[in-house]
Structure formats: structure tokens, C-alpha cells
Design goal:
Helix content: 25-40%
CATH architecture: 3-Layer(aba) Sandwich
CATH superfamily: NADH Oxidase
Order of helices and strands: HEHEHHEHEHE
Largest sheet: 5 strands, antiparallel
Distance between the termini: 44 Å
CATH topology: NADH Oxidase
Number of domains: 1
Shape: globular
Length: 190
Amino acid sequence: MSSPVDLLLSRRSMKFVQSPGPNDQELDLILQAAMRAPDHGQLRPWRFRVLQGDAVTRWADVAIEACREAGEPLTPQKEASTRQWLGNVPLLLAVGCFIDHANTKIPEQERVLATGAAVTNILNAAHMLGYSAYWSTGLGTYIEEVGELLGFDALEYNFMGYVSIGTPLRELPERGRPDYRDFTSEWTGN
């Protein structure tokens, strides 16, 4: 039996997923895991929009059109690949970070970090439940009009992309990872 750390070390991002996706109880667990993210000041800046089933493909139509109207159309190849990807996704979470400009004590950067930590918990929880997940900043993430269609008004939110969750379309091959020592050093104060 694998330890929880072994399970965590086996996590991989997988963009191409299919049904089944998490059921309601599993989605509750995944989103509860998000609530356990580190969060200075307990601001809970993360916001999620849940798109399931047909809503995912309808969103693809809406977002592609919004990109076009904003003057940033997808190339025909990118549009086709986006539709193919989202056509199979059973569950898509749109991610926003609430900025709350009235709070000047905690910097915006810490809210963005907390939201990223919440998404990491989502990715890990989905993996632990046997699903694959992928955080994408494509499909208009940096186009204000797209985020606004999801209720992430650009004056109050940073729209941070999408997390797709489902059953992988294929077996995930082993992937080599760098040695942490290449990115770590000890500070001794000398």
C-alpha cells in the first residue's frame, strides 16, 4: 500500500480527460480541500464557477466568441483543439481571485498565492480520488470580457483560468522530475 506522500508524488497534470468526472459527493470533497489552503488573514479570496456536462461545451462557444469580440480570436487550429478538449471534459472549474481593494493590510500577491494554493489542493484531492486534473490559463484567461462573463469583474477579481477534472483518456506515462537539490540551497547566515 502506498503512503499518502507516495500518492502525492505520483500526481500528474492531465489535460485530456473524459467522463466520468467526480460525483456530487466527490466534488464536495475536492472543494472542501480547497478551503484548507493557507490564507493570510482568512480572506478566502478564491472563487469557483462550476461547469458540468453540456455547460462545458456551451462555455466553449461563449468564450471563443468573447475572444473574437475582444479582438483576440483563436486561430482555427486553436479553436478546433479547444473544442475537442472541452468536448470531453465532464467538470470544469473556473477560478477567480477576489481582490477586495478595501483591505490594504494584506497585499494582493498573498491573495493570488492563497488562490493558487487552493487550486493545488483541488488538483491533489482530484488525484487522490482517482481523477486527473489540469490547470489551464488558456481560452481567454487574460481577456477581461471572458472573466466577466463568468462573474469575475476585472475591477474586483483576477480571473486565473480553469481546472478540468475527469477520467484520463489514456494511461499517464511516468514522467521524470528534476532533483529538488538543483533548486534548493541552505542559508547559514555566514
